[in-house]
Amino acid sequence: MRLALAATLALGALVATPAAQAAEQARLPAQSWPTDGVFGTFDRKQLQRGLKVYTTVCSACHGLRLVAYRSLVDIGLTPAEAKAVAAQKEVDDIGDDGQPKKRAADLKDRFVSPFPNAQAAKATHGTVPPDLSLIVKARKGGADYCHAILTGYSDPPKDWKHEDGKPMKLESGQNYNKYFPGNIIAMGQPLASDGQVEYGKDDPKPTIDQMARDVCAFLIWTSEPTMEERKRTGIKVVLFLLVFTGIFFVMYRRTWRNVH
Amino acid sequence: MSSAMQPAPQPRWMRWVESRLPIFGFLKDFNEYPTPKNLNYWWTFGSFAAITLVIMIVTGIVLAMHYTPHVDYAFESIERIVRDVNHGYLLRSVHANGGAMFFLAVYVHMFRGLYYGSYKPPREIVWWFGLVIFLLMMATAFMGYVLPWGQMSFWAAKVITSLFTAIPLVGTDITNWLWGGFAVDNPTLGRFFSLHYLLPFVIVGMVVLHIWSFHSVGNGNPLGIDVKSPKDTVPFHPYYTVKDVFCIGIFLLVWAVFVFFAPDYMGHPDNYIPADPLVTPSHIVPEWYFLPFYAILRATPDILFINAKLAGVLAMFASILLLFVLPWLDSSKVRSANYRPAYRVLFWILVADCIVLGFCGAYAPDEGVFRTASKAFTWLDLARIATAYYFLHFLILLPIVSRLEKPKQLPFSISEPVVKPAAARA
Questions:
Q1: Which of A115, A250, B179, B361 could staple A120 via S-S, CB 3.0–4.6 A?
Q2: CB count, 10 Å around CB of B172?
Q3: What would the mean pLDDT of B210-226 be, rounded to a whole number?
Q4: Hey, how many other C-beta atoms are within 10 angstroms of the C-beta on A78?
Q5: What is the spatial distance between Cα B30 and Cα B50, in angstroms, rounded to a whole number?
Q6: CA atoms of B14 and B22, how far apart (whole Å)
Q7: Are strands B34-36 and A184-185 parallel, antiparallel or unpaired?
Q8: Is A19 on the interface with B (CB under 8 A)?
Q9: pLDDT at A126
Q10: What are phi and psi for residue A181, nearest 5 degrees?
Q11: Is A251 at the interface with chain B, CB within 8 A?
Q12: Closest Cα to residue A233, out of B89, B53, B55, B101?
């Protein structure tokens, strides 16, 4: 029995994992986030910095259509500040005369996407920049992957080759990224220099890594705004179930004591 | 029963109801139902399945109050549930992870049946009802997974419904009828939602029949021998009610750990991308509980005049349908594998084989199994071996072993193995 178990484990160690098979993908550097773990929480100052990075840099191409402007109150903005963020964009409306008109976006609206539809995005960029509302949940590796992409730009390696040995070269509109599957990404490096986004006096220095970290933390929030409530409730539920199971275990043993 | 143990006479209103509909007597029979006293923990998994069914129906009905079954709104309606509906994230997570927990409970429950001979006479019909429940669960889970209309939802729907085109002559017409059109689109989503709401209630009815059928012949037990006297049994309440509630506590703990601390662990990231018929995901995989069947589906080559696709469909359905004739494939009169040393070995090899099949379903068939650069031994090769062994087990090994093996000596009664050593010690 033990031999069978040992043999199985040994064989299992030899078996390729999907990660190893994904076209020799570069290993994602593990990051730590304030939201990690059973007791993880959001760092609201960081979320606000991330929002700033998003509105300054990312919102030019990427939408956030599942997030309502009113939700920004949950990351520490006052309703007036959230309304100010919203007012930078316009939404369609119908006037009292029945004619279509535009009005400033309000708390009740969701984030306005930079393009009205996929075709407009494609016409400008050649590809459709994905909406970022769920990007952390929609990618294997989550926030670690997103951070790796943002900081993984470089010149292609000197010995970059196709599978058949011919040397690879970047076409126009292509960029080399160490962590993107296939290494060729259409997005140009979005965070290209330190200080690209202005941070406040008390904030950490806006290095590329810091800005990437802040915007990824913000995207963790947009992917799951209810995370803190989920974990808090989870601790209570697990504690309750442990007590519940314990009590019923004792009842079970007492009930069965005199059987057999 | 001495008169000292008699409960107080029923209140008048209860007697009024009882004389018109004997519901209280019926429930009393359930409570006092004589259950073998030696049932082990493997017997609790049926109750896990039952409680999961109830929780899935309750969460599902509340989710359906907020969900929109239209291709343009389905994905966003679920995000709205998660973000804006009070405790919506909890409803969604319980329901999605509950599907996985349901299959976990049912797979253990089925393997318990295979080990202890729960399919043998007189319980063949219990086994058949159980298999029908399993098939209904698979249909329900498949359609439920399509409803979020993510990338995996859409492409799983496309792959599995396209299998029906494999039927000769009428395949394409049947598939178009199922789709409600010429491709997976809004009509498909609408009917999947309707049927996903319907089938769980069909499952409830089948569960009633399932329980009725083993109540009438009596539960199986780990020794596999019949109950000889009331001494071998205890009333279901309180003995097994308290045991089941205790074990359900553990089951709910496991479920809660997933719901609250790893809600997306069993899912696929691609399902958080809205469905796009023009973009195929790099790897289309079903949820883990379908992986063994997915492996069987992809394993078959062209066989004689049957093309590989049709062969795969037939093999996949055959892998479940042959379980219906299991009582005749395995004809041993001994029920419990505790007393069948040869069969016991085969059983555990089958468990390993099913797990291997599950891994085969998770990987791309043309990838190498081992961490070497060569593709000499691919997941497809392994899937073929594992699939062949699965059918070998049921169609060849079982009939031979069950007829030729020499089982161990069975105890006389359920009480005997425990009472006799105690008497010897006294």
A1: A115
A2: 14
A3: 93
A4: 10
A5: 15
A6: 10
A7: unpaired
A8: no
A9: 87
A10: -55, 125
A11: yes
A12: B89
Residues paired with residue A15 on neighbouring β-strands, in sequence order: B370
Do B370 and A15 count as a contact with CB atoms less than 8 A apart?
A: yes
Task: Answer for the pair B314, B306: CB distance below 8 angstroms, yes or no.
Answer: yes
Beta pairing class for A175-176 and A184-185: antiparallel
Q: Which residues pair with B233 in a beta bridge?
A: B36
**Which of A34-48, A156-170, A205-219, B268-282 has the weakest average pLDDT?**
A156-170
Residues 6+ apart with CB under 8 A from B119: B113, B126, B127, B326, B327, B330
Q: What is the mean pLDDT of residues A15-35?
A: 69
Which of B37, B261, B271 would best serve as a mutation to test chain A binding (most A beta carbons within 10 A)? Answer: B261
CA B397 to chain CA centroid, nearest Å: 24
**What is the per-residue pLDDT for A167?**
85
- Cβ neighbours, 10 Å, residue A125: 16
Tell me if A86 sits within 8 A of A55, measured CB to CB: no
Percentage of chain B with pLDDT > 90? Answer: 87
Residue A181 pLDDT > 70: yes
B422 interaction partners in chain A (CB closer than 8 Å): 260
A114 has pLDDT over 60: yes
**Beta strands, E only, B111-163:** none
Of chain B, the end-to-end C-alpha distance in Å amounts to 29
pLDDT at A36: 95
Q: What is the pLDDT of residue A22?
A: 42
Instruction: Flag whether pLDDT at B335 surpasses 70.
Output: yes
Size of interface A-B (CB pairs under 8 A): 101
* Nearest 10 degrees: Cα torsion A43, B86, B148, A36: 20
Which domains are seen in chain B, by residue range?
27-277 (1.20.810.10), 285-413 (1.10.287.980)
Predicted TM-score (pTM) of the model is 0.92
- Whether B291 and B357 have beta carbons less than 8 Å apart is answered as yes
Residue extents of the structural domains in chain A:
227-254
Gap from A43 CA to chain B (nearest CA, Å): 19
Beta-carbon contacts of residue B283 (< 8 Å; ≥ 6 apart)? B364
Predicted complex ipTM? 0.91
The length of chain A in residues reads 260
Name the residue among B107, B72, B292 with its Cα closest to residue B189: B72
**Is the torsion defined by CA of B136, B139, B142, B145 positive or negative?**
negative
What is the per-residue DSSP string for B339-386?
G-HHHHHHHHHHHHHHHHHHHHHHS-TTSBSBSSS--SSBHHHHHHHH
Cβ-based contacts of B37 with chain A (< 8 Å): 259-260
A110 forms bridges with which residues in the sheet?
Answer: A68
- Identity of residue B159: V
CB atoms closer than 10 angstroms to residue B75:
23
Q: Mean pLDDT in chain B?
A: 93
C-beta neighbour count of B81 within 10 angstroms = 19
Q: Is A85 exposed, middle or buried (0-12, 13-18, 19+ CB in 10 A)?
A: middle
